[in-house]
């Protein structure tokens, strides 16, 4: 189907897809920063130019508009009434590209979190942002925590439980009260 927009209108229209510093992105950035996370934004050398990159967590976050990225089952995703085929194709292509970028990132060892615009509506925002915190903490503990905090009493003599500590470090850190046991 022919494009009904002039090239100029089309260009403006398309440029919005990749627009940066959108309000949803800023909400997440402020939230993460306030909780002590440090990150880089719009990292061009990674596939898909992730909106937020948390290197320490080996995690990237995409903040997606529900329309442009075709959020399935979302009430904010409605195809325009005219040019339905055009929009359908366009959004399918966006979704396919999103998928390929995610696959590339995962192959590179990144965790990919996709945040939808609708998840930041005021009524659900806190819940979803707190969910994001949990996810990040979980990822960190699962994959990157060098010193696992195992209560010494429970660890006993099983040094394997202190995942990455050498025996010397383990003894040095051992609380005094346990040394006479
Ligand atoms: Zn949505």
From TrEMBL:
SUPFAM superfamilies (UniProt xref): Restriction endonuclease-like (SSF52980)
Cross-referenced InterPro entries: DNA_mismatch_endonuc_vsr, Restrct_endonuc-II-like
GO molecular-function terms, A-Z: endonuclease activity; hydrolase activity
A single BP term in Gene Ontology: mismatch repair
Pfam families according to UniProt: Vsr
Sorted UniProt keywords: DNA damage, DNA repair, Endonuclease, Hydrolase, Nuclease
Family membership: Belongs to the Vsr family.
Cited NCBIfam families: vsr
Protein name: DNA mismatch endonuclease Vsr
Organism: Phocaeicola sartorii
Gene (name only): vsr
């Amino acid at each position: 189907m022919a494009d009904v927009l002039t090239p100029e209108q089309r260009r403006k229209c398309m440029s919005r897809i990749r627009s940066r510093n959108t309000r949803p992105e800023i909400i997440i950035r402020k939230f993460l920063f306030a909780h002590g996370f440090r990150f880089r934004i719009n990292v061009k050398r990674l596939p898909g130019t992730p909106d937020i990159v948390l290197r320490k967590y080996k995690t990237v976050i995409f903040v997606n508009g529900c329309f442009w990225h075709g959020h399935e089952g979302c009430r904010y995703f409605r195809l325009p009434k005219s040019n339905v085929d055009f929009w359908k194709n366009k959004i399918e292509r966006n979704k396919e590209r999103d998928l390929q970028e995610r696959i590339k990132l995962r192959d590179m060892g990144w965790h990919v979190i996709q945040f939808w615009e609708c998840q930041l509506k005021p009524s659900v925002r806190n819940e979803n942002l707190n969910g994001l915190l949990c996810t990040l903490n979980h990822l960190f503990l699962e994959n990157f925590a060098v010193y696992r905090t195992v209560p010494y009493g429970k660890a006993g003599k099983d040094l394997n439980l202190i995942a990455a500590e050498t025996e010397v470090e383990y003894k040095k850190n051992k609380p005094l009260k346990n040394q006479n046991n």
